[in-house]
Amino acid sequence: MPKPRHRGDGAHLPPKLPEDDADHAQLTAVVKEWAAAIVSNDVARMASFMAEDWVIVSDSGISTKDQFLAFVESGALTHSAMELISPPRIRVHGDTAVFTARATNTAHYGGRQSDADEWTTDVFVRQDGRWLCVLSHITAAAPSPS
Q1: What confidence score (pLDDT) does residue 143 get?
Q2: Contacts of 26 (CB under 8 A, 6+ apart)
Q3: Strands 130-140 and 50-58
């Protein structure tokens, strides 16, 4: 539970929750804009959200920014949908932030459509006043119990 905050006169203020934070709002907007860029399949727009040393970790291992963007640029990998389906958990530690949420997406790779339901964690760093992603990690969500 967040600690109570104090005004200068000793009175208590309500605890500051992550959802009230300007960084929380900025990061949520960045993630939504990045998702729109991915669905647009615009490589330059997608790259603008990624740090130079960005990597993605998935069930197939680690892919670099250059590898990922090359797949998109070649047309071998496209996305037609991407949506957050859970409220994000965001934690900011100075100029580093961790964004975790459940998301769905529809990708097309090598002529096959793949509909994914995943937990995704993105690590962002603040550089020159902008949040850039340095690491994305995706894990398939467990099916809902019947």
Answers
A1: 84
A2: 131
A3: parallel
